[in-house]
Design goal:
The complex is a heterodimer. Chain A is an alpha/beta fold. Chain A has one domain: 3-Layer(aba) Sandwich (Rossmann fold). Chain A has 12 helices and 10 strands. In chain A, α6 crosses α7. Chain A is globular, with a radius of gyration of 21 Å. By secondary structure, chain B is mostly helical. Chain B folds into 2 domains: 177 residues, no CATH class; 72 residues, no CATH class. Chain B is globular, with a radius of gyration of 24 Å. Classes of the chains: A alpha/beta, B mainly alpha. At the A-B interface, α4, β6 and α5 of A face α8 and α9 of B.
């Protein structure tokens, strides 16, 4: 039994309009507990639409997304079937509060969601909404802020007077304060400097190590290579494949999906092109490659 | 949120109506609106005239491929008003010529009230239809150009018409952007457990602030960036401006204008004759079509 499964889901924007648009076509795959999934594909391939079905922000027009015990669907046939077979009422299918607690969602530029007058209040907002007491929420907020590296001197500051990177970390703290078991991040590193990027990524890694399942939408292949345990490739609203990063980058059809090759694999290709005669196809880390090159030149 | 376009939105077809000059379209919109609201004497006259107008407006809607679905959708937000009209014009005691029924306590209903309600509703529906024809066949930018053109006489009075039209076009330009933005923020807040549809007054106000504050913040930063970008490219509000798109009057517009003027002229003449023979001297009568008591 997998944690998340997408069952033949399609999504059409403006269904009844003349200019409707298919954002997802018959996507089927599943995600296991503890995975670190990277979702890649060119702009407009349906990545953001796909993740928004995870907590019921968008309901698939056909098929269903199953997350934990929840069915997310807008398909009338499936709603009927669920009612008949599993005795799940239509009303229950519309209740997303608990699902949204379990699936934390960090959108692109999450700093735009800050609104409170102090940082601590903003981080407490999520837990309070999900029915925690004031003290418990505060405890969670402090833990979350600790985790993202915002110390107590910031708690009473306004979220509008801190720097961009800090804002983003506060916003992420606002999500993880509700301690979700699945964390979805839509391009969390866009618009950050290299240091800020590294901080966010190591934070995500730390959260993953605690047992949270991570789904990250990204264009940055270096991130995919370094952090993801599996990559899901989408193209033109369709699911293409789910492989490990090294399988993806060693495959020949990479350019079909308009994906950039990470610098490491580019370097490997250059080596091969310039006649480096050792077998390096199965080497996927920088250290191993350094060793291999060292072997060749006897050092 | 995204479908709160009450006055319709542009639909990208290429029909005759789309290609007409926006200045002319704006003019005929106003003329035809005036015509629908003119007094035409007794009920028979009124409904004949409105019937003719309905026919022509429906024809224009079909030629211009205006979506009837969006038209009825925008009407559906007006039904509360229709009910109010019905209560005020029909059920509240008033007088009339044609009696339906008198109750024992002296409360009586008249056909006049019903006819009046029908008349007013028809007028409002036609007005909405006209507006939707304009907005769904004309780009917002073109409407602004037309507005600016009509404002040009004010230049003689040193009125800064180009600044006004720039402000209008910027406002129009940013409506979809802000709708997108508010959608994104709502999604983010929903993920943090805000429910915009449920709850009573206080919790609703609280959940709306989670949308309004981020939206305002991004609005201000956006307008700041826009101002800087414009200044960086040498924007000077008092310089003479040229347009990317210049408006031309063609023979097509000429035919259309003759048609609209003819229609408007006939209607106005009809109205004058009706007023002459059947009398409609009251100002309120002219505006609302309420018969003088």
């Amino acid at each position: 039994m997998s944690l998340i499964s997408f069952n033949n889901i399609s999504f059409i924007y403006n269904k009844k309009d003349p200019n409707h648009y298919d954002a997802l076509k018959e996507v089927t795959f599943s995600i296991e507990k503890g995975d670190f999934i990277a979702l890649v594909g060119h702009t407009g391939s349906g990545k953001s639409t796909l993740v928004q079905t995870l907590n019921g922000l968008l309901l698939p027009t056909s098929g269903y997304t199953k997350v934990l015990d929840y069915y997310v669907t807008g398909d009338k046939e499936i709603i009927k079937r669920l009612k008949k077979e599993k005795n799940i009422k239509k009303r229950e299918l519309k209740r997303f509060s608990h699902l949204r607690k379990e699936v934390g969602m960090v959108f692109q530029f999450p700093e735009y969601q800050l609104f409170s007058d102090t940082i601590i209040k903003d981080v407490m907002f999520g837990p309070l909404n999900f029915g925690l007491s004031e003290e418990e929420a505060k405890k969670r907020a402090i833990e979350a802020l600790d985790e993202v590296g915002i110390d107590y001197t910031y708690y009473e500051k306004s979220p509008f007077e801190i720097s961009g990177g800090e804002k983003r970390r506060v916003a992420i703290a606002g999500i993880i304060a509700s301690s979700p078991s699945i964390l979805v991040l839509d391009e969390p590193t866009v618009g950050l400097d290299p240091n800020g990027k590294k901080e966010i990524l190591s934070l995500i890694k730390k959260i993953h190590e605690k047992g949270t399942t991570i789904i990250i939408v990204t264009h940055d292949m270096d991130v995919v290579m370094e952090y993801a345990s599996k990559v899901v490739v989408l193209k033109d609203s369709r699911f293409i494949k789910m492989v490990t990063p090294s399988e993806l980058f060693n495959s020949k059809d990479l350019s079909n999906f308009s994906l950039e090759i990470p610098s490491f694999y580019k370097f490997k290709r250059y080596l091969a092109d310039f006649g480096f005669n050792k077998d390096i196809t199965n080497i996927n880390t920088i250290d191993e490659l350094v060793d291999k090159i060292g072997e060749k030149y006897g050092k | 949120m995204a479908n709160s376009n009450i006055l319709g939105k542009y639909s990208p077809y290429n029909t005759i109506i789309h290609r007409l000059d926006p200045r002319f379209k704006l003019f005929s919109l106003i003329l035809l609106m005036v015509v629908t609201f003119l007094p035409y004497g007794n009920y028979t006259n009124r409904f004949i005239i409105l019937g003719v107008l309905t026919f022509f407006i429906a024809l224009i809607m079909i030629i211009g491929k205006v979506s009837f679905r969006s038209f009825f959708k925008s009407l559906s937000s007006m039904w509360i008003m229709f009910i109010f009209l019905l209560i005020f014009m029909f059920f509240i005691p008033n007088e009339g010529k044609y009696l339906i029924h008198t109750f024992e306590n002296g409360y009586s209903l008249y056909y006049d009230g019903l006819l009046n309600v029908g008349h007013i509703i028809l007028r409002l529906v036609l007005m909405v239809a006209l507006t939707i024809i304009l907005t769904s066949t004309t780009l917002p930018m073109d409407i602004t150009y037309a507005l600016e053109w009509y404002l040009t006489p004010l230049k003689l009075l040193k009125f800064p018409t180009q600044i006004v039209s720039l402000t209008i076009s910027l406002a129009l330009r940013f409506i979809p952007t802000l709708l997108n933005e508010s959608n994104r923020i709502m999604n983010a807040q929903k993920s943090r457990g805000v429910d915009y549809n449920r709850g009573f007054l206080m919790s609703k106000i609280r959940s709306i602030t989670t949308l309004i504050i981020p939206l305002l913040v991004s609005c201000f930063s956006r307008s700041d960036e826009l101002a800087i970008a414009m200044e960086a490219r040498g924007y000077d509000p008092y310089k003479k401006r040229s347009h990317y798109k210049t408006l031309h009057f063609t023979y097509r517009d000429l035919f259309a204008i003759i048609f609209v003027l003819l229609l408007g002229g006939i209607m106005i003449t009809a109205s004058i004759f009706a007023c002459y023979y059947q009398g409609c001297d009251d100002f309120i009568n002219i505006i609302f079509g309420v018969p003088t008591i």
